[in-house]
Known about the structure:
Strand order of the largest sheet of chain A: 1-2-3-5-4
Radius of gyration of chain A: 79 Å
Order of helices and strands of chain A: HHEEEHEEHEHEHEHEHEHHHHHHEEEH
Strand content of chain A: 15-25%
Distance between the termini of chain B: 16 Å
Oligomer: heterodimer
Structural class of chain A: alpha/beta
Shape of chain A: elongated
Helix content of chain A: 40-55%
Strand content of chain B: 5-15%
CATH topology of the domain at 144-298 in chain A: Rossmann fold
CATH class of the domain at 144-298 in chain A: Alpha Beta
Radius of gyration of chain B: 19 Å
Number of strands of chain B: 1
Amino acid sequence: xxxxxxxxxxxxxxxxxxxxxxxxxxxxVVPGDGALPxxxxxxxxxxxxxxxxxxxxxxxxxxxxxxxxxVSSRTHWYFSLKDEGAVVSAVAFASTARKLRVLPTQxxxxxxxxxxxxxxxxxxxxxIIDELEPLGQGALERELKARVExxxxxxWLDPETKRPLPAFPRTIAVVTSKDGAAVQDVxxxxxxxCPAVALLIVDVRVQGERAAPDVSEAVRxxxxxxxxxxxxxxxxxxxxxxxxxxxxxxxxxVAEAIRNTAVPVVAAIGHETDTTIAELVADHRAATPxxxxxxxxxxxxxxxEQLDALARRVSTAARQHAIAERKRLSMxxxxxxxxxxxxxxxAHRDRLGSLTRQLAAGARTAAMQAERRLHRAAxxxxxxxxxxxxxxxxxxxxALEDRLDRAVRTRARAAADTLDALHRELxxxxxxxxxxxxxxxxxxxxxxxxxAAGEVTAGDEILTRLQSGTIRSGVLGPGDTxxxxxxxxxxxxxxxxxxxxxxxxxxxxxx
Amino acid sequence: xxxxxxxxxxxxEALVEQLEELVERIESGEIxxxxxxxxxxxxxxxxxxxxxxxxxxxxxxxxxxxxxLKKRASGDESS
Lengths: 511, 79
């Protein structure tokens, strides 16, 4: 199929002239040998009929939806459009293909618009396409998205790579078409904002195949001369249009030029809803040319106000500085040193006096303390002198002597007392005392004490001793025979100190 | 662009920057009274210059095509 047209216009024209309704005109001589049987058509005759039937049966322009397959592109694009039940060949000639820009891909669903054509020499019906739109997302949009992704990966869309715009640019270079809608908006807005900012307008094509190279070259040249021309920012702008119209601003060459400028770039391409790559990689994106200028050029009125405020601040600050200095001076003048120098001296004198007193008092206290310490030391020394020790020892000895003396005397007195008491006791229990109480003692003439009546017999002589004197008597005979309680003959009479007798026995006594 | 671009010192931005610096120096009280009076006088001059820029009535607009820009750029390089 390559390199040749899918139909032969000459033949089709001839076919068209064949007559309406596809009737074979009478008298048409069919090439071949001899006459043909009645009702037999040649292929060409049939083709003419097919072509006529196609033209009468199908509207001149059709819009069809189908899936793209068998894509082949050289000068022209050839592919098939199909659905589940049928296939139709399609072709986009070179002029249409240039307009479409993006070749459809295998399997893509598209809406194709064109006319049907029967190519008799090829025996084929084709859809001659003049419009092709992808179903769903457009091919251009998809391409744009892919490019945006690529630039994002390169980091060209990062907000931190964006440069700040100058606060007060000297000159702004404007890359746009001098015939476009944008340029007048730019000039008007700039004049309104601040006439002090100069504009350098570079006329470029903003649409079509030359637009991208033009725009990128202008941006590059402006960047190179920015310093010398006093250009502080570049504005790239154009008015609204279709995606195809704006496509130059999606080209990577433009993006690269914008990216590599020496001064910040503002871009405002198309309407607010359009987004182009030029805008995405620029340092600042504006919705419209007017807004771009407002971002770039400060408002002279606002600057006037700012300047007024600064002027006020300068004079206020200077004045306040002077006032503050004056106040400081008067405060210094009012300080006691200047007001009453004598008082300053007095204060010093007082201080000196008080210091002197403190010094004297301190010295006194120190002396007293030293003296006290000396006394204490002397006393301690005295205690340790030998004579003192001797005296202390003698004194201790004397004390011991006294104690001994007292002890001995006490002891002697106690002994004497005991002795007296014993003597009194002895006297009290002595036989003489018993006799004095009326008792008497009877003995034999040889002095043997008589305790029982049986110890004597009648006729014996006995002696009875009274308190005063002794009686000699003779025994007449036994009296009462009641014997006295038996007691061992040679036992001495019970002593007063024996414990055995009960207390009343002791009282009752021996006798 | 027949006009010579304004020198860096004469730029509005630079003027305002110097002015702000002056104000801050005076306000800080770190400079002496005499210096502050000097700064004030300087400030008055700066304000006058900045005002002159703002009140410039006529806007300089130049238009050139790509070829002219190219020539000017290459002229830059040669000169």
